[in-house]
Fold this protein.
Amino acid sequence: MTFKLHLLFLFLVGIFFGNACPVHIQIEDHLANPLSNATVLVNGKTVGTSNNSGILELSLEEGTHQIEIISKAGIKQQKSITINCNKENYFRFALDTSGHDSADLKEVLVQNKTIKTQLEESPFSVQVIDLKKQYDKAGDVGDFLNRASGVKLRTNGNVGSQVQINLGGLQGKAIRIFKDGIPIELFGHGFSLGTIPVNMLDRVEIYKGVMPVYLASDALGGGVNLVSRTSNKNFGEVSYEIASFNTHRATANFYLQNKNNLYGGFNGSLNYSDNDYKVKVPIQNATNEEFKNVRRFHDMTRSNYAEAFVGVKEKSWADDLRLTLIYSDFYKQIQNDAQMVNVYGQAFSKEQNYTGMVNYKKKFFEDKLKVSFLTNYSHFNTRFVDTTTVRYNWNGEIIGRNLQAGEIRAGNFQKLNYNFVSSRLNMEYELSERNFLEFSELYQYQRRKGSDPLGAISPIDGTDVMTIPAVYQKDNMALAWRSLWFDSKLESIAAAKYYHYNTNGYTTDNYGAAWKSSKDDSEFGYLGGLKWADKNYLIKFSYEYATRLPDESEIFGDAVLIRENLDLKPEKSQNLNLNGEYSILSENSSLTFSGSLFYRNAKDGIFLQYDIPFSRYINYEQTEIKGFEFETHYVPTKWLNTGFNVTYQDIRRVGIKEATFRYLNDSRVPNIPFLFGNFWANTYFRNLFKDGDNLNFTWNANYTHRFFLVAIPKNQEPSLFGPVKDFQTSLIIPKDGRTGQFSNDVGVYYHFASHKTTLSAECRNIGDVKLYDNFNVQRPGRSFHFKVVYNFF
Amino acid sequence: MKRSNSLRSVLAGIAACMILFSCSSNDDNNNPDNGNNDDTLPKNETWIIYNGAANWSGGIYALKDNKSREINLSGLPFLQVTSSLGGRTLDKTLFKVNDVSNTKQGINKMGIDATGKIVDQGFLPSLSSAYETNFLIAGPTEGYYWDKIRGGLKLQKFNPTTMERTGEIDFSSLSEGQPLESIGQLIIAKRDNKLYLDLLLGDKAAGNWQVTPSTNEVAIAVYDLTTNKIENVTKMGGTTNLGVFIDHVLWSLDEVTGDLYFASVSDMKVQSSALSSKILRIKKGEVNFDTTFALDMKTYQFPAEFNRLFAHNGKIYTTIPSRAVSYYGGGQHGVRYRDDVWYWNEIDVVTKKATRLNMPPDNFYTTQNPFFHNGEIYFLSNSASDGFSGVNQYNPVTKEVKETFRLKESGRIMGFNIIKD
């Protein structure tokens, strides 16, 4: 199916080449400076806007055309042009802008919506974190996500540790993460939420509950799209951060473009951390155990990511054609188990990733049809090595020798090779000025093969199950109709989605036989959204019947500890969002409130049914989530902005069928924070030591209310801030009696007057508060970060 | 003025939405009695009930004045645990494998506080990070456990009162140089001041869960606590692998006859007919297997294993599945290991005749052995088809079966103990 579509697409591209002549329109002001964002009309119809170089490239048929240019300031110019396909069609328009002062331009800029604003004003429940002014900040992108309203990051430690996002109460595989629309898994652990410095990204788009068509995928609870840095002008930037726990981060971003619109660039990052922060842990002695504060000793993480690209822009045959090559690697020592009870001293994992990617964008039919196509191929080599025959305590001392290989399980020497192919096709066709058709398709192919002579031997037939190739293919499509009404104040969207997957892998029966079997399934979904925007308020409603397809590991298990379940069905969820925003603006101050109510009803949740000797994934849980988010942002003066957000999500199991377990009906789903929020204040002082310099201070605080690790019957839940009195438990975060965890980060940033150099210093968790996450894993205490950013040009 | 009105409107609207959306019906019921009350039940007994959810997590409850024949645990105080498999007792103290999170390996000690709630009272950690701690509480100050990291052929000693390790007994002299050697990993029994410990010498194949012994036999080492010497190592062929389920042991001392019984499960992957699961015996006063005696699972059902064991007055109380089962295969002929196929039986050790007891079958989500209390033997059952999770009691003299209690919408029963005042 996908292959056919791709052929069709290529065929269409060929046809379009044959029917149009390339036309270059150059727009300048009266001083010959390029004029960007000027609107170009051909024969009375809008065909596009000029880019940062003042250029618009389009295709026109031979003959005479009436061209009208309208600048951002409203200056118009009309001219007739004659197109001859046997000649070069280059036309220059010079607009007289001398009569417009800077004040007018400033006003126009306010009206010109940023991508952030455009996305946030779509009918979806979306939040955009613009990172362009955050490149001076330390840490990784996860720190910024965690401060967003309605978003909670769950981590197992510090740099390089596994990170999952909770959006609207759903987390894990329910939330899909993309880099420029491609599933992030295809870029390796070197590019993950736990390792990406902010300098690598332009922005982060967070879609809650309802996924836009252009990110069509099987996301049950929404998704996050990490958008890479890009530019229309030359730039070069390097940054380096040094931080506590022997942490080092460096980034380099370059972009160069010549007059022929040939361009190339590089984005790279290095991460290294010993992650040797102190933890309070039990250490056994001759008679019992005692708790001590010790440094983690086997949690070193190192990741490298390098992305080089070349391309051409604004040609008659391509608005943008880019070839990207990526190399990344990742090495991580493993210090402890998920509950941070068992300590390991030698186990590690590592991987190398090679990716090639082609990205093509073009507008057709007088820019009515916008096409974007991206395809990539990735090859992964991964290793998971746990072969030692010794055991360690938290002091890093060997406490046992000559034991069975493997600290974590029964030993692993796992070598896996993955091949991934992923393609995304996005098309938008303008039916009329106010009606648009959108189509998106995401195709994924994954093949895994390897070996693990220690850890992957089937107890049934003795086969190393990793030597048998496992294949998983997934195809997601979406088709939408988007309309604008009432002077574009009202926007509506309705879409249908189609999900399909097939997989094959290793199966065993009860009699010691093994064979390859396959599973194939498809589902339909749909979504709708409405938005009403007026001068200072915005109201949105969106709904999606969302689906998450089971993946290969859930269907076939690992054949060692987890058995297959070929009857596994996709997870489904009804997701609703009601969003509102209200702004009070004055000349030098602003106050913005935004809030949302959300509802999710997820069925057939895929649940690992633990057992010995085999566990199995089954469709079991039904979850109902009701929640709200509220955020306020206050800018009382030019030098200060402050605000807070709070999220409450009531995530409960419902519809328990077995009478035996009905006592847990309506109980909170454990191990998910349900009340959390952030507070912040930022100050900006300009021209402090020298004209043009800038000194900023920031304060960020985070609060996460206590949450339980194991389900509690609803009628025995303690009140929100009341003590736990009906039962005794240590299966709670935090378990030291606090009703929540509250941490504060502060930072100071100095931008030199040259605008080339920035120096930063931050202190995270300034109060050295004990912080815990997933299953009581201890997070770092106070840490210091210093960062320098240098821009070449 | 306009600004403040706008602000107030916005705040009021948001507050209203928050209240409306976050409110839910309040059906809380924190009545500690919870409707459970039956005056016919002994007032001087406290029932300890371990309940479990689908993922084995749950709570440990103590019921004294609120015992009844149908128990709804909702609203009653409990100690929360991640794995609710229970429960061994010594007087009024409870012991179970691993801590409340079930990740910290070792022995957890619990008790009843002044208000009648179950509370944590101490923990003895194992150095091992694998789920394999076996232990015996022999008295208030005498306990034994196995800790692979401290040495497979060393039996650890501890004080159950202080929950401190007190030393170890070295059995290294029994080594044959096999890759995996253990003493007391699965059987630690005490009789007449002698310890009876399984001796397992072999290796574990990749992907296998059990140790494969170097010789197809089972072995018990007898250690005399008076002389502090290894008195004997007795072996018996025709079966392998004594014991297997660490939360509940597969040995039983017949308090009436003084005979000591052990169950072997054999190789549960292979389920060999020649080495089938058996119940073996060391008679009172003996330190050698009674080679004239064996109860063979093949006699009753095959393939299958003995997975529970309680001996009383010349009778063995255990489960026999109604269909062939396979632990590794997940099922035989469509029957899963944890289906409602495990029927409680009384087997006469002389005639070897098995008599099915008239009570709901069990599906092996709990692994607790039956126990004797006040002239009656108590059996735990979870049966999905019968909608039953509870306990039945059997009078071995009158042969009468009576339902002790059943849980009402309160999870599976995972453990049960009776503590007398």
Summary: Chain A has three domains: 2-102, 115-228, 235-791. Residues 2-19 of chain A form the longest helix (18 residues). Residues 570 and 766 of chain A are 44 Å apart (CA to CA).
